[in-house]
Specification:
By secondary structure, the protein is mostly beta strands. Helix content is about 10%, strand content about 45%. The protein folds into two domains: about 220 residues, no CATH class; about 100 residues, Macroglobulin (MG2) domain (Immunoglobulin-like, Sandwich), CATH 2.60.40.1930. β17 and β18 form a beta hairpin. The protein is elongated.
Length: about 325
């Protein structure tokens, strides 16, 4: 399985930037096993009216095929700028001529293998020659890496979406979906005229070909969700918590800016140091994570008064903490 995190900001008034971090929670590559399997990111951005302004990773419900798929195979992406580009985690076999093949006995190499490696996976391991990363992912500085450090088990993909407005609210939904048998793999099999293939074709044609949801997350962007981060502050400070409005009632917006990708925990404490509520605990990509707190815990609404927001960021080589005092006025 995987964990998702997403952050959004506006680098310009008409451009929305969404960073998606995917963390592999298993102890092996994801997806693992037979090369007919694949998983991909389905990203949808809608405006305040519910109109879709961007969608990557949509699929045909009847065939189960991803729309706008490249001929041959879709490459790995570090940065996606067009809705026709899709981040697919998969292993694509190549034959001795370097062409795509779906037949195991003809598989001489991999043309692409960007399946998410597990935590601790490195290219210097003694077994890397049999588990290596193939294709563009091998050169991606945000794939299983945090700077010079390998083994994060995280891929961070940046989506650049144009023709939007900084003055409009947007909702970004990110979903990881999984498919056991990709349609191109099945189409290759169905070329063979045997009783076994004919029987399988009957099963396949009557099956639901929709991918299986693995994880999802929804974040907002716009004048009521986020504002422009200060690049200078982010560059000089490993971790920073900002709160607005402050004092607040009924809700405070929290902006956590991190210089590195890592495990982020955001917790609310009383002035006496009592832990009240954990707002977030998970992987956060470098950049801005936005959260809201409405003065409630899982069991009750808190009284007016002063509270502390404590953010802790753990990276492979360092731990950072930032504290922000907030005031709830009723």
């Amino acid at each position: 399985t995987v964990r998702l995190n997403a952050t959004a900001d506006f680098p310009t008034d008409d451009t929305l930037r969404v960073r998606v971090a995917v963390q592999n929670l298993s102890g092996h590559k994801f997806p693992t096993g037979y090369p007919s399997r694949r998983a991909w990111l389905h990203v949808v951005v809608t405006d305040a009216n519910g109109t879709v302004v961007f969608e990557s990773g949509a699929w045909d419900p009847e065939s189960g095929e991803i729309r706008n798929l490249d001929v041959g195979y879709e490459p790995h992406y570090d940065r996606i700028t067009d809705s026709a580009q899709v981040q697919i985690y998969e292993a694509i076999m190549g034959n001795t001529a370097g062409d795509v093949t779906y037949t195991l006995l003809r598989g001489a190499t991999y043309l692409k293998d960007n399946r998410l490696p597990p935590l601790g996976f490195t290219t210097t391991h003694i077994s890397y020659d049999s588990t290596r990363i193939y294709g563009r992912a091998a050169e991606d500085p945000n794939f299983n890496r945090n700077g010079d450090q390998e083994g994060t088990g995280i891929d961070t993909v940046t989506y650049i979406i144009g023709n939007v407005s900084v003055n409009t609210d947007y909702q970004i939904t990110v979903e990881m979906v999984y498919q056991t048998a990709m349609p191109r793999f099945i189409a290759d099999l169905l070329q063979h005229d045997t009783p076994e293939v004919t029987r399988f074709a009957g099963y396949y044609q009557s099956a639901d070909k929709s991918p299986i949801p693995v994880a999802s997350i929804t974040v907002g962007a716009g004048p009521t969700g986020i504002d422009h981060p200060d690049p200078a502050v982010v560059a000089e400070t490993p971790l920073l918590v900002q709160a607005y409005p402050n004092p607040f009632n009924p809700q405070v917006n929290l902006r956590i800016q991190a210089r590195e990708t890592g495990w982020l925990t955001v917790t609310i404490y009383t002035v006496q140091g009592q832990k009240l509520h954990t707002l977030y605990s998970g992987i956060a990509p470098a950049g801005t994570t936005t959260l809201q707190w409405d003065g409630k815990t899982t069991t009750h609404t808190v009284a007016s008064g002063m509270y502390y927001v404590v953010a802790t960021l753990k990276t492979p080589h360092q731990q950072y903490q930032s504290v922000k005092r907030i005031l709830l006025v009723k």
